[in-house]
Amino acid sequence: MAVATHGVANRTIWNEPASEPAFEPLDIATDRCKGCELCVHVCPKHCLAIDESIVNALGYHPIRLTDAAACTSCALCARICPDAVFAVYARPKDV
Fold first, then answer.
1. What range defines the domain where residue 91 resides?
2. Most buried by CB count within 10 Å: which residue of 20, 28, 72, 91?
3. Domain tally, the chain
């Protein structure tokens, strides 16, 4: 643990260890997505949606993961996608 003092007498602040980045079960190649929504309809947890806030180089609104915690890495999205935009990762096992 690192100790940092900030010029305040008799006050020590303990820095918490850096937290690991949140697990992302999907890597989506949004530059290739044509927004067909097949993955949205096949997702059993309903955690995919069209991202209407951006347009990719192909002129489409790509897909985005709306809830990483809900995703089970079942890979149904990857199996149905005609453009192979998904890379699916399994959750790390708790030790």
1. 19-95
2. 28
3. 1
How is 39-72 classified by DSSP, letter by letter? Answer: HHHH-TT--EEE-TT---TTS-PPEEES-TTT--
The reply to whether 31 falls in a domain is yes
pTM score: 0.74
Q: What is the pLDDT of residues 58-81, one digit of tens each?
A: 999 999 999 999 999 999 999 999
SS3 content of the chain, % helix, strand, coil (to 5): 10, 15, 75
CATH number at residue 24: 3.30.70.20
Q: State the Cα–Cα distance between residues 39 and 69, nearest whole angstrom.
A: 17
Residue 9 resides in a domain: no
